[in-house]
Amino acid sequence: MNKPAVAATRLIRFENGAHSFKEDLLAVEEPLEIRLGFGKKENREQKKIAVTMRTPGNDFELALGFLFTEGIIKEKGAISSIQYCTELQTKENNYNVVRIELNDQIDFDLSKLQRNFYTTSSCGVCGKASIDAVYQQCDKSKKANFPISPSLLLKLPEALKNLQQVFAYTGGLHACALFDKKGELLLSREDVGRHNALDKLIGACIGSNQNSFKESILLLSGRASFELIQKAAMAGIPVVASVGAPSSLALDLAKENDITLIGFLRDQRFNVYCGEQRIID
Length: 281
Prior knowledge:
The protein is α/β, with parallel strands linked by helices.
């Protein structure tokens, strides 16, 4: 079931002292509830683990990426099934609830998921019970140390812009893209929530068994916030570049996880905040 990512609306535009009626498109924002089934066959449990405001589309990727970046699963093989809970038979929940079933061999402790079960479209860690829990999840091992030229980086924003189809219609979505170390596009995703876009991207890679994270460059259409660096660290991505600014907490986490962090990558310029050893002029 593919729900629309855009919705039509009618508006009044005021311009140069006059007004006119216009048709416009808005990015759709709807809740997605993620439920998790786990336990042995004779004693299965089901829990609601998160609700996030997202743009419909690629919902299974979003759920899969969320479980991965939360440290609940490490590979696609941990999942036995993923489906919509269409039996709810209500307009509000129709294709807005996803249930993922873990294999019964997976030993899952729900208490390790230190999250209040609600996140907004603007923040992926607002529900965290403890920032320390996020730090503890990340793999702090050394990342691949391949060289990247400034000229390669400067080409990436235009490539991402050309991929933002829904943004072109609405101006209201975040996007992210994964490139290989030669600057070739691997995958991209959009969403009203920046953390959802990245979960969709990571989930798509895991779901297709194309784990190219360790020698890749992640480009973000907006700012580099803490939760996005956390997700990149969980995936083992060594280079994160953003069109906007990083936060101080994002920089701290990038340093701890040997991530090259680049900001303000636009208008033929960029800043390198850490991990400059990978940038070869």
